[in-house]
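CHAIN AND CONFORMATION:

***
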Amino acid sequence: MAKNQNLNKYNEDSIDVLEGLEGVRKRPAMYIGSTNSIGLHHLVWEILDNSIDEALSGFGDTITLTIHQDGSLSVKDEGRGIPVGIQKQTGKPAVEIIFSTLHSGGKFSDKNYVSSAGLHGVGASVTNALSEYVDVVVNRDGFSYHIRFENGGKKIGKLEKVGKSNKTGTLVRFKPDPKVFSTVEFKWETIIAHLQESAFLMKKVRFIAKDERTKMEAEYYYEEGLKEYIATLNETKEKMHPVLVLEDLTGEIKIEVAMQYCLQDYNESIYSYVNNIRTKDGGTHENGFRAGLTRAVNEYAELNNLLRNKVKLEGSDIREGLTAIISLKIPEGKLEFEGQTKGKLGTPDALAYVQNMILSKLTYYLTENKDFATNLIKKCVDSQAARLAARKAKEEARGNKKFRSDTLLSDKLTPAQSKEYALNELFIVEGDSAGGTAKNGRDRLHQAILPLRGKPLNTDSLTMEQMLKNTEFATLIATIGAGVGPAFDIQDSKYGKIIIMTDADTDGAHIQTLLLTFFYHHMRPLIQAGKVFIAIPPLYRVMNEQKPSQFVYAWTDEELELGKKTVGSPYRISRYKGLGEMNASQLKETTMDPKSRTLIRVNIEDPLIVERRVGILMGKDPSVRRKWVEENIDFTIREIIGKGKEDGKKI
């Protein structure tokens, strides 16, 4: 009966029409991906893209971004200035339409921009919809114009001509709405990393950043673009050869690729862009690059009899140790992205364009540089041999019961009883004392405990052979059971979660960093798949001395103060300096039980920042590390997301 009543109520009066930008405020994640820090900064990129498009088209060579004291942010360019004349279809100034109407702008054809970062025409209007205010100042045609919006895009007054000007360009200042976002604090490091990335991609365009909150400034300008980009990414690594740049700027789709192989590096690092937008999920251009690279190397190796037993190389053999950047400029008529946030290129023609360019240009380079070609093929053949040997050993181990039973992982490991590996959790624990407590507090069915003997080694400074000789890492590799380095296969992992559980002090933080460095270098797919976590034990326990059953745990000093009020006086505070200071039941309920614990998932939010950070902070050159610490150090160790949640933390 209730069902029929609801059916009858669904009529023409049930249909809501969201006017203007209301739909954006109703469902912001549909337009910017999320309402956390990532979504917040997406507002910045949308405005910045408009200025970049002007520079891409040859109008202006300086872009200035400023974070202001009141929490707002402005982007200023020296382009042509957003049009201010009346748009015929609406009878409103063009600048007003651009900031207040979805799917409006000058990027839907190639009349205004041969290529642009914007595609869907929602950038400026979405930023407006999700802001407390937006101020726009336009300089063009000898005059300066101003228009303002408040409270999610509501126009405040008409477009005004405020004076004469001998400049051209646009200044946009906006303040994100705290009612929409979980945080409205712009991150300086995120901003400057993005600006530097843009400067690498746009040769001879200057990007300036200013932060009025801290008085910090940064400026980026590069003459050689991608070549300097690769050199910066690999500055702490042992390079096999100088940066190689391949390009074809004559076709309808313009392609530039920079690449370099590094020794003692077992990962591939491929970053791609289209019209200066990072395509973090890849797409047709990356597929074309991989196909062209594989074919060019195999054809050269076959022609010169460099293959072992005439067995062709796989793509993974060829890409091991490779850092590459792919940058395309695609005209509007051919530009296709999958999703509003433009994470994956869908343009079909890009695959053939990039594949043919790489095949042609790289084949020519290999032919003209035989020493380089011979060394490259040897490296690839060695990678192939290691892959085939690992596969053979795995097959023998799977088929040999005696081998499996004779393989002892570690006398320190307390294994999980379940064979449902996806549900199992491995806790890597600091020290035997904490290991004993964790062993007694664990869920025997699904939780395994592996105590560490002292601090792990810094694997950024070790060869693979040196790392494998280390007892702690050899034990960890055997425990996870999925191989290591190029032989790592995430499908063979015996655990759905790898949880680093250390003391809440500087030594514990150092151990976390060393373990994350190991996973990053040698088991990166675990991080990429979201299977590596950091456990967050409490710092305090506050108990009412007269009523011991009344107690609370606190993870921060703020929670401690709240806990004092909650339990009442007189109270006693226990400060947990180490995991071993808790008994098994306390460790279980605060740190190990999925129903009540806090876990922080480790993820690689920005691979370029991570690559440089690991190289600088964990690399061999102390002067580079010291310089970075002096310029960037923030003594905030970590941020607690919230008890019971298993969510993101950048590595």
User: Anything to note?
Assistant: Residues 465 and 618 are 18 Å apart (CA to CA). Residues 370-399 form the longest helix (30 residues). The two ends are 54 Å apart (CA to CA). The chain has four domains: 22-220, 226-390, 410-538+582-650, 540-575.
